Amino acid sequence: MGEAHSKLGDLILALDAYQSATALAPDDANYWRLLATFCAQNGVNIKDVGVPAAQKVVVLSEDDPTALDLLGWLLLLDARYDDAESTLRRALDLDSQNASVHLHMALLYLQKEDRDSAYDHLVLARDLGSAEAEALLSQYFP
């Protein structure tokens, strides 16, 4: 239901549906992941809903680099750069070939105005198959 409401542009009903799903299945990481991803993709309730949902995913999905990537992304969106960086580094320690983690690291470094590190992570993300990284390389490093 959350995805359907989101596609129809009703973010309030979508958020409510995602939150209802987590209430019905509080130990299912997938519903928490969907809620956190929805918040990140739509830029809504990052601090109050998205970050706690991503934290719950990390707790329920021990040593899962994709869960850490999601949390790092939300922390980045919440401008908690040091926390985001340490979380994304933990994700890379578990899976150094994860294009999404490299992309989020690059976005973090762009925010911190560390262009050299951003470039390195964008190249890695692109080489691992991220089309978004390739577009960002063209935009920021023509």
The SS-based structural class is: mainly alpha
Q: Give a quick account of the main beta sheet: strands, pairing sense, barrel closure.
A: none
Structure annotation, total helices: 9
Order of helical and strand elements:
HHHHHHHHH
Gap from first CA to last CA: 41 Å
Shape: globular
The overall number of domains is: 2
Q: What percent of the residues sit in helical stretches (DSSP H or I)?
A: over 70%
CATH architecture label of the largest domain: Alpha Horseshoe
As a percent range, the share of strand residues is under 5%
Per DSSP E runs of 2 or more residues, the count of β-strands stands at 0
List the helices and strands and how they pair.
Elements: H1 2-7, H2 11-24, H3 29-42, H4 46-60, H5 65-77, H6 81-94, H7 99-111, H8 115-127, H9 131-140
Helix pairs in contact: 2-3, 3-4, 3-5, 4-5, 5-6, 5-7, 6-7, 7-8, 8-9
